[in-house]
Amino acid sequence: MARSCAESAQTALIELLGDDELIALGKQLPSTDFADLVENLPEERAASVMAHLEASERQQVQTALSFPEDSVGALMTPDAVTVRDDLTLEEATASLRGRRGLPEQLTAIFVVDRDNVLKGVLPLARLLLGEPGVKIAAVMDTDPVHFTPADNADEAAQAFERYDLIAAPVVDPERKVVGWITVDEVVDRLSEDSFKQSLGQVGLDENSDLFGPVWQSGRRRWIWLGLNLLTAFIASRVIGVFEGSIAQLAALAALMPIVASIGGNTGNQTVALVIRGLALSQLNESNRRYLLRKELSISALNGAVWGLLMGAVTWLLYGSPELAGVMAAAMLLNMLLAATAGVLCPLILERLGRDPVMGSSILLTGITDSMGFLIFLGLATVFLL
After folding, report:
1. What confidence tens digit (pLDDT) does each residue in 338-355 have?
2. Of 78, 109, 165, 316, which residue is most buried, by most CB within 10 angstroms?
3. CA-CA distance, 74 to 56, in Å (whole number)?
4. Domain of 143: which CATH number?
């Protein structure tokens, strides 16, 4: 099952609840959510709780637990609302009244034949407003978007976004309806992915527990803190090379953080776009060069605009057109470098089999800081001193 950012809170909660209370809670939750709770139980307690469920409830939970966490099967709800294609709208309405209730997200009914094979979907509006004697087969949509339990959950989320879906049927290889997936589950999936990305950009992972042991939590951060320290040390050594230049022109010390900062911001924007493109499978070998050219063009435009603006401000502050020119050129060059690094860092990490989210931001910051200082101080040394 998909791991939630609230998994640690779930663990604390289920430790406080007795088996009877857990079972009562499970009857109020969708089977996929209850399966998340069961998965976090010790093996013996999980078996005890499962044994006290009704047969149909136990089967639903076991079905949810049987699929990989990144699959549609792990997100689907087994109890799909279906009607037969040979019924009239009036007969279909009567059959739905016989159910104990309808899900809140239900906007269409899945239409099947006598063998439970998916034939189409019937929007609720047509069911309620259509002529009562009309056959469902005559008014249903015959080519619905559907998934199989083995489909990738992220690809399903993309389909929901692309087709503006609220719900969709899940079918087996014989096209028989085995469940359905709703936009709520998809949004939860996207929220979890966003949470993982936000952690990854600062070198953390989803296993980082807010209230976990100090030693364990600290050890998980060592590699990224070490990498951050290394990049910061390299940046400091770059500055050290130009200590003499800074001593002769103190304005350099005040201006060089601006060059590094604007480069870091530019690169982070590019990294975010590339990571999203990778997550949505929008990037491939044929369009990566186009993306790099586009990001370089955008950075060239922004670098020219903001470089000239900052150059003008520098001229006003220090009365030196030469220093203003160095500032403008350094900003332009560092923004071009940042765009290049912003595209290549996540792509290279992906090519190496690493998660492109993890550490891309740290690598980018190290590159833009070090090269930003080198470009600015190098230009200043050549043209001003």
Report:
1. 999 999 988 988 888 777
2. 109
3. 17
4. 3.10.580.10
DSSP bridge partners of 84: 112
Burial of 214 (0-12, 13-18, 19+ CB in 10 A): exposed
- Domain-embedded: residue 203: no
Helix (H, G, I), strand (E, B) or coil at 102: coil
Better pLDDT: 56 or 333: 333
The neighbouring-strand residues paired with 122 are: 109
Q: Containing domain of residue 353, as a range?
A: 214-384
Residue matched to tokens 């936009």: 183
Q: Does the reported pTM lie above 0.70?
A: no
Total domain count, the chain: 3
Scanning the structure block, which residue is given the tokens 């239900």?
A: 106
380 and 299, same domain (yes or no): yes
Tell me which residue has tokens 């186009």.
290
Angle between helices 31-39 and 19-28 (to 10 degrees): 150
Q: Are residues 135 and 249 in the same domain?
A: no
How do strand 108-112 and strand 118-123 relate by DSSP bridges? antiparallel
Token pair for residue 293? Answer: 């050219």
Residue 116 lies in a domain: yes
H helix or E strand, kind and range, residue 81: none
